[in-house]
Structures are given as C-alpha cells and as structure tokens.
Amino acid sequence: MNRPHHELERPGARRTRSRWWTVGLAGLALATTVGVSVAPAADAVARAATDDRPPTSDHRDDNPSDKGKGKKKPKGVPVPCTADALIAAITQANARGGAVLDLATKCTYTLTTNIDGAGLPAIATPITLNGGTHTTITRAAAADQFRILTVNAGGNLTLNHLKITGGQTTENGGGVSVAAGGSAAISHSKILDNITSQGGGGIFNQGTAFVTDSSINRNIAGETGGGISSSGPLKVVKSHIDRNTANVGGGVAAAGATVREGSITGNKAALSAGGMLIDGGIGTVVGTHVTGNTAGDVVGGIAVTDGGQLTLRRVGLTDNTAGNVGGLFVSGPISNGTSFAVIEDSLIKNNNAGSNGGGISNQGVTTLRRATVAGNEAGDQGGGIYNTLGGTVRLFDTKVVKNVAVTDGGGIFNDGGTVELNIASGTVVVKNRPDNCSGDVPGCAG
Questions:
Q1: Confidence at 249, pLDDT banded by 50, 70, 90
Q2: Which parts of this chain are annotated as the region Disordered (predicted)?
C-alpha cells in the first residue's frame, strides 16, 4: 500500500531540503509501507570485524538446492504438466478448503490467461504447491501482463522447490502478491525475472511472508523493492536477494525485516538505498553479505529512515557505491525522524561515496561495538564516518582505519553532532587520509 514520500535532508547540507523522489536529492522515503525481524547467524562469522573478513554464507547463484534440509514436503494430489490442470487444481482446492498439490518435475506450466490480475486463481485457503527438479511456473511471453500468484486475505500459500518467473504487471507484485491477512512461505524456490511498474518486483507483501533457502533475483520494480517490498512481517533466512532493480530499495524495501545468513548483493536503485531500505520499522540483519549494491543518488548499501531501528550483527557491508553515502545511512530529526542503528561484530569496508560518508553517514543515533570501518572513500568529507548536527555516534572497541576523504575527516568528520570514541574500550582511529578526524572528536589524534 503506497503512502506519501518523506523529505530527507542530504547529509552535509542542513539548510537545503527537497523532495528526493521528484528531484533525486538526498531524501529517502518508502512509497510502499513495509515490515520484518531477524534471528542470530552462525558462529562462523562471529569474528568478521576483528579479522577484517566479511561474514561467511552459503551463497548459491540462482540455484537453491533441491535437497533442502528442512521437513519433507507433504505428499499431495498430482497435477499433470498443463496450465489448465494447475488452474483447475487450485480452483478445486479453494472450493474444498485447501489442498497439497504435487506439480510435475521437469515441467514448465506456461500461463496465458489473466485471472483477476494473476495467471493462477487467487489463493484463498491453505494451499501447498510442491515442485521438484526443473518445475517452473511462468507467463507466456505473448500473453497479457499479469503476475503469477496472488494470495488473498485468509489465503495461506506454501511454495516448495518451484521457480516463479516471467510475471509482469502494472500493479504491485510482479511475481507474488500477498494481501493483508494472507501469508506465504517460500522454501527452496526461485523468484526471478519478474517485473512491476509499482512495488515488489519479486514479492509484494502486505500480510506475512517467510522466505527460506531461496533466491529472489533479477526482478524489477518501477517504484520500491526490486526484490521484495513489504509492509507486513517479513523473514528471510539462508536466501539470496541479488541483482534486483528499483527506484528505491533495489533489493528490499520494508517497514521492518529479518534477514539472516544470506546475501543482498549487486542490487541497484535509480535513486536511493541500493541494497536495503528499513523505513520506520525494526530491521535486523545477521550473518549476511550486503555487497556491491549501488544507488544513483543516495546510499549504496542500507538506509534506515523515518524513526526506524536497525541491528547489524556479523554483517559484511562492503563495496557499496552511491553519489552520497556509500555504506549505511541513519536518518535524524533534521530529515524524517530520528532513526537508530546498532552495529556489532561487523565489517564496513571499501564503500564509496561521491560526496560525504563513505562508510557511514549518521543523522540519528548509531552505536558500533567490535566493528571495523576500513578502506572506505568519500569524494568530499567523512571517509569512514560522517556525523551531522543532531547526530550521535558511539564507538566501543572499534577500528576506524585506512579510510580516505578528498577534503577533511578521512576517518571521522563531525559536523556539529556528538562523537564518543570510548578509547578505553579499545577504539582506535588511525592511518586515515588526509587526517584521522575533523571537527569536535574528543580523543582523536588529528
């Protein structure tokens, strides 16, 4: 469900405010409300900050294993390899209050008819679709535009070992749309190459969505959430949200989210938040690579806005790029509400901003514990960390090393906010260029 866009002030320009959506300036807003929360990751990535390595994850490119370690999929009613047979089976399952349907292996169900905006009847009861080796549901290239699946209020969709592809629509949800009051559980599946001119290229969620051991790749949204746009509870575990595209939130745009032990990589936003946008909710990212994302204007990696709360734990936030703010942006009262970020045991490295804030740009309240901010670059100020008026940054046992700014504050640039280094805890700010700190940063050696 779309809502008005917020105004957000470009870091470093406190008196210049404009609507980012219309002119591409530093605003971050979410045209579609969204929501998610996260669980802990494997201990194998616990030392990401201290050994200067990103977290480990089992990254498979568009190829989730067909041999999942989860529960065995329940046996159901066989569905012959024709679109008509699948449509009839879902229609009958809805009429009978639900069913488990076993789709044919090595089969592509090619949909040709638009049924109320989707290629299949809307899911209105608990229905499980079990696929297998090379089981695909797709829209025929010459067919009218429609998404693949819709889940209505009261519907409960489970997808196992399926590929959902080729959906195209002018409405929200290119591949799968989950209405408020509905739910979807997607396991060992691929949601890829779906397109919408609105929100949620792969998945649009207003209900509840749980994605595990799956790939959400190469989807496109004209507005928010190239991979996933969510306003309801969202949990993504051991999955890969890679190479999706949107105006805002290239990979994920959510009012809150849990992302654990996977990747958000190579996503693109034409305007803001190349990797992930947490807009006003609670977000947790654990044991995950957020790498190589880009934005045409603001925030290559992750943005938390509108009073949102974000926890990064054992995360590699690396090699993200934008015109302003490379890695992480945390909004504050001078834009659209004070947001909060806690970064623990994580690595923020090699992010690049054309202007301010190579690694982190903070207007809100950001706390780093046992983290490393290294090798980030800013075309103007704040190679490692850029902190603005009203912002607070607290560092505990954290290394800010070998960052570069073209103008000032190679390590940390404080523009009227508060920076607490907590040197006694082991925090060091060294080997940054052209200087370690600029502005009021108590305890920093120049």
A1: very high
A2: 46-78
Does the residue 366 lie in any domain?
yes
What's the structural domain count of the chain? Answer: 1
Establish if 35 belongs to a structural domain.
yes
Assess if residue 84 is contained within a domain: no
Looking at residue 362, its pLDDT comes to 97
Give the per-residue pLDDT at 179: 98
pLDDT in tens, 405-440: 999 999 999 999 999 999 999 999 999 999 999 999
| SS3 category, 92 | helix
- Is the whole-model pTM more than 0.90? no
In a domain, residue 112? The reply is no
Tell me the per-residue pLDDT of 114-166, one tens digit each, with 9 for 90 and over: 999 999 999 999 999 999 999 999 999 999 999 999 999 999 999 999 999 99
